Amino acid sequence: MTPVQAPAQNAPARTSIYVEGFSHKNPIPAACRIGPLVESGSVLGTDPATGAVASTMEAQCRFMLDNLRRIIEAAGGSTADVVKVTVWMKDRSQRPALNDPWLEMFPDPASRPARHAIHAPDLDMGKLIECSFTAYIS
Known about the structure:
By secondary structure, this protein is an alpha+beta fold. Helix content is about 20%, strand content about 25%. One of its GO terms (cellular component) is cytosol.
């Protein structure tokens, strides 16, 4: 059996990513970066000017993807670095509301992140959709 090695002394530090106009109620950052890897927390369809959840699915989708973009940029990357987006939707039949801004953000079919939509009927506080993402910033 091979012994487990301790992390190198110069291992990359964990960095919490915060974005103005986007926050969580709990004491967590919008995302965390270690080296080239970025993992987000829940990214909501909130208006960065008010912090309120938008009232329609279309508006929540646009705000959610804009918040994703702002978070990855705050981490030092761009939407081109996003590898996967996991989406929780109250009603998956409303995917077309997500597809339009998705195609605007990721227009090249040869360079889109993976996406997984999960039915989440218990989303609360007026949320119709939320996501999390993984990115690799090289």
